[in-house]
Amino acid sequence: MSKCTLNVSDFTKDAFNRFIEDGDGSGEGFRIEILSPALKSYDTVTVNLDGIHDEYGSSFLVEAFANLIRKSGFSYDELKQKLELKSENLRWSKEIWRYIDEAKKDSAGSLLRR
Amino acid sequence: MQEASTLNYDIVFRVLTFLITILTWFVVYNGATHLATRNESKELLGDLHNELKDKLDEAVEHWIKIIKSNGEDKIERSLFLQHSLIHISHLRHIKELFTIYNLSPMGDKDIDELKRLLTESPDKDIRADATALSAFYNEKISQLSRKSYTLIKNSKESYNLRFKPNNISIHEQLKLGFKYVLMALTLVLVLTI
């Protein structure tokens, strides 16, 4: 079983931009360049959320994690199985899973609409 | 016999004096602590209100500018996001400070909601459509205003519950004080007899 650990702080210390065009260290950049390839290559990916300045911007988290379902084609079950979030601040991982849950509901809605 | 009785009175008098001194010290100490806690938490409450109002004003000004510039001005947007996250960290700190005074004017959920309102950027589809972008920020302005003023109202209520406002007039307070003094004197008399 292959494992890998990613540190968000290696990618950016200011985690608030949403799209690549918004500036450095965006959620979209993290998803496309780092997280999505890691999830495709490894069985378990641990994301260490600590080490950034202040807090995570909501849009960064939505774009980096929840949009793995909406835009990168991962399923909710796949993320539950493969993605591990590590932080001294439990609030952050809770917030991320809340956004992922919302994305799951959205994708279920879009399937129903088809 | 008379000497023994005088000695008894003397002991009762000393014990009573000691008890009254302790009681007075207790009342004064508690009153002073209560007043100090009340003033310190009121000051903290004022800080919280200013913080919320200032951020609301700043956010409204910033979002109106974004609507007018049709989503341009990337640098200002980044600065606003960064500043908002510092503001959120500060609010979490203020929230922790309130627990010292047994006050909980806002919960983690409230701060999370504020954070989402302040740091949620529109999707690409919305950015491409001027009307949708304007609607997005208008909605944010009304939601943030509502949330900020609800938090201010709730925090005032929480403060008033913890430190009940003193509505008793000085005349009533004197009457109440006189009643207690009378009761204490009666007790002393009963004990001495």
Overall geometric form of chain B: rod-shaped
Strand content of chain B: under 5%
Largest interface: A-B, 19 and 18 residues
Alpha-beta content class of chain A: alpha/beta
Radius of gyration of chain B: 29 Å
The fraction of residues assigned to DSSP E strands of chain A is 5-15%
Q: How many beta strands in the DSSP annotation of chain B?
A: 0
Which parts of chain A are unreliable, with pLDDT below 50 for 5 consecutive residues or more? none
Helices and strands of chain B, in N-to-C order?
HHHHHH
Percent in helix of chain A: 55-70%
* H/E topology pattern of chain A: EHHEHHEH
Share in helix of chain B: over 70%
The total number of structural domains of chain B is: 1
Oligomer: heterodimer
For the biggest sheet of chain A, the summary is: 3 strands, parallel
User: What number of domains of chain A?
Assistant: 1
Q: Could you tell me the mean pLDDT of chain A? A: 91
Notes on the structure:
- The complex is a heterodimer of chains A (114) and B (193).
- Helices cover 55% and strands 12% of the residues of chain A.
- Chain A is α/β, with parallel strands linked by helices and 114 residues long.
- Chain A is globular, with a radius of gyration of 13 Å.
- Chain A starts with a strand and ends with a helix.
- By secondary structure, chain B is mostly helical.
- The radius of gyration of chain B is 29 Å and the shape is rod-shaped.
- The model of chain B has no long low-confidence stretch (mean pLDDT 87).
- At the A-B interface, α3 of A face α2 and α3 of B.
